[in-house]
Amino acid sequence: MTTYKEGIPLGTEVAHFLLWGYSLEEFPGRGVIEALGEDIEIEENAIYLRASLGFVKKDEKGFLVVDRRTKDIDKDEIERLINDFPTFVDGYEFELFYSFDVHFILKIKERNGWISDKISDSDPFYKNRYVMKVQPIKELCKNGVEYNKAKDTAKALNKYLLNVHKILENHKINRKRRKMEKMPANFLLTKWASRYRKVESFKERWGMRGVVLGSSSLFKGLAKFLGMDFIKIDSFKEGINLIPELNYDFIHLHTKETDEAAHTKNPLNKVKVIEKIDKLIGNLKLNDDDLLIITADHSTPSVGSLIHSGESVPIIFYGKNVRVDSVKEFNEISCSNGHLRIRGEELMHLILNYTNRALLYGLRAGNRLRYYIPKDDDIGLLQE
Which UniProt keywords apply (predicted)? Predict the structure, then answer.
């Protein structure tokens, strides 16, 4: 399965959004998803970004990012640092919500009008790079008015970040940390600007009650955005044991362990994790009508410098309605010989097909177009 397009690496949030049958045009941006996952009250006339305290060194080119995450800094130090940050710049209101480690959600509002999320990141993301100037992204703007608003938003955010840097550079907390030979937190790096937009819920689109089992606030945010339930789990094993007790049409169990193992760039670490997960899946108790799907949302190479990569991923469908092919092993090479070669946008349609829920194309059941066979309660019935 190619989640989006061959060669394009995806983040977890976008990949799952596509796998669950939504388009990139409907995606609000990761900032909003993370804000929802942190239970922040979302306002329509505000934008949300991920912000992180890092360490930079200034030179003639700008601010070289030495570390995108300041190490060995406690929450008390962080709170004392951010208490001195400005809250208003050029008519824009800035508010930080602490998340975890050195990470925040940054909320920005325009006091006397609307605000644009069509702006670039300041966080360079990759190693040995400089802080980027926040700029309006022209191809994302629908017209000149929106571009000018994005330009104003970017200008205000750049000014805010520079003001914050000056405060951090001279802050007594950082002066103390330097004396103790600790890394200072002297820059706020931002990315993933986005604003809320309403989309069709998962149940409305696919006719199934869905639940997500995961360990991160990101999945909590995705579930909330799409009207799915969320159950926090501490381990993949806990999720496997919980599944038989759940009464849902669609259950999504996620583990980050394979991704984290690959990030160590030691392939043997990933082997150990896959073997552990394989044994746990073997303990899963399935009913006759259940459809089991095992796949990945993206490739995470265990060698090289890429964080995620853009190759296809193996996928298996196991259920009584599934056409069997000759593939006997579940891995990238073997699965490439299977009879299915799909894109992520087709996954939910195959699920409807294999669970006898797929509506014959062209039928018009109820007051909107559907992909699934609706129940009588979902549509209006003619009565005398």
Answer: Pyruvate
* CA–CA gap between residue 334 and residue 294 (Å, rounded): 14
21-38 pLDDT, tens per residue?
A: 999 999 999 999 999 999
Residue of 15, 10, 13, 17 whose CA lies nearest to 199: 17
Long-range contacts (CB closer than 8 Å, 24 or more residues apart) made by 62-68: 62/130, 62/131, 63/130, 63/131, 63/165, 63/187, 64/128, 64/129, 64/130, 65/123, 65/124, 65/128, 65/129, 65/130, 65/131, 65/187, 65/189, 66/183, 67/183, 68/123, 68/125, 68/189
Name residue, tokens 């949302």. 297
Instruction: For the chain, give every domain's residue range.
Output: 12-26+201-378, 34-194
pTM above 0.90, yes or no: yes
Cβ atoms of residues 188 and 121 within 8 Å = no
**Can you point out the beta strands (E) in 170-265?**
187-194, 210-214, 229-232, 250-253
Single out the residue of 145, 148, 167, 144 nearest to residue 156, CA to CA: 148
Say if CB 297 and CB 3 are below 8 A apart: yes
Segment 202-245, tens digit of pLDDT: 999 999 999 999 999 999 999 999 999 999 999 999 999 999 99
Please answer whether residues 174 and 168 qualify as being in contact, where contact means their C-beta atoms are separated by less than 8 angstroms: yes
Rounded alpha-carbon distances, angstroms, from residue 16 to 31, 125, 347: 15, 21, 11
Q: In the CATH hierarchy, which top-level class contains the domain 12-26+201-378? A: alpha beta
| Eight-state DSSP code of residue 136 | B
Is residue 106 within 8 Å of 46, Cβ to Cβ? no
Indicate the burial class of 41 (C-beta count within 10 angstroms; 0-12, 13-18, 19 or more). exposed
- Which residues in the chain belong to E strands, given as ranges? 46-58, 63-67, 88-89, 92-100, 103-110, 187-194, 210-214, 229-232, 250-253, 292-295, 315-318
Residue 297: phi and psi, rounded to 5, are: -85, -20
Q: What share of the chain is helix, strand, coil (3-state, %, to 5)?
A: 35, 20, 45
Tokens of 286: 């399935």
